[in-house]
Write a structure and sequence with these properties.
Layout (H helix, E strand, L loop, with lengths): L3 E10 L9 E7 L9 H4 L20 E3 L2 H11 L9 E5 L9 H9 L3 E6 L11 E4 L11 E9 L15 E9 L5 H14 L3 E3 L3 H5 L3
Parallel strand pairs: 2-4, 4-5, 5-6, 6-7, 7-8, 8-9
Antiparallel strand pairs: 1-2, 1-3
Helix pairs in contact: 2-3
Length: about 210
């Protein structure tokens, strides 16, 4: 039986990509395969620009869940009671596909949830995902070459992470999201320019940061 290690579970608005503004429960799994989460390892990590705390299970709603049903119950408890509209959960991380399996997806479906996943694309996805967002990182290989949206943090220095490498993959939407670092303004202008020059791409802003919500 799979034990799920979860950093946090909370209710908010999706801040990025095609589902921006949609109410969602965020189910953040602990752990990642591209960075340990320790600052001492950041510089040498495949993905060294992560802006998320995914280490440990002590965030709001976090913990170790001994079954898929227990995990789905915790996600359901975070969704407002008696609300209309389909409940939506975003499975994220770290890297959610290190842990998210068909049993968990089935249990979330049984609770009525539409299941979204935000992944770095290095691990094959289990069946049953309703919305798949792939965000390639650095020189990491991309195993998931199709889905609903490809969301590329931009700019990235590595040749493997340039937009032209991904534009022919089987995604419905292609987003550039400005890299949030000391050069954020410059990165945003560069992303705007790229989208204007290559209209297949759309701009994704981290609207939750602009709104000041988690």
């Amino acid at each position: 039986v799979m034990t799920y290690s979860v950093r946090e579970i909370y209710y908010t608005l999706q801040g990025e990509g095609a589902q921006t503004g949609r109410p969602a429960v965020f189910l953040r799994f602990a752990g990642c395969n591209l960075w340990s989460g320790r600052e001492v390892d950041r510089e040498a990590a495949v993905c060294n620009f992560c802006d998320t705390e995914f280490v440990g299970v002590d965030g709001p709603g976090g913990g170790k869940f001994q079954s898929a049903a227990a995990l789905a119950d915790a996600v359901r408890a975070a969704w407002p009671a008696d609300s209309e509209g389909p409940p939506y959960v975003v499975c994220t991380g770290g890297e959610p596909l290190l842990q998210l399996d068909e049993a968990a997806i089935d249990a979330l479906h049984a609770q009525g949830f539409e299941v979204g996943v935000e992944t770095n694309g290095t691990i094959a996805a289990p069946g049953g995902v309703d919305w798949l967002c792939v965000s390639p990182k650095g020189r990491a290989p991309v195993t998931l070459t199709g889905g609903d949206e490809l969301k590329l943090v931009y700019p990235q220095a590595e040749a493997e992470a340039q937009p032209e490498r991904f534009v022919d993959l089987a995604f419905r939407y292609f987003f550039l999201q400005p890299l949030d670092n000391a050069h954020k303004e410059q990165n945003t202008l560069a992303a705007i320019r790229y989208c204007l020059d290559h209209p297949r791409w759309r701009l994704s802003l981290q609207s939750h940061k602009l709104m000041g919500i988690p």
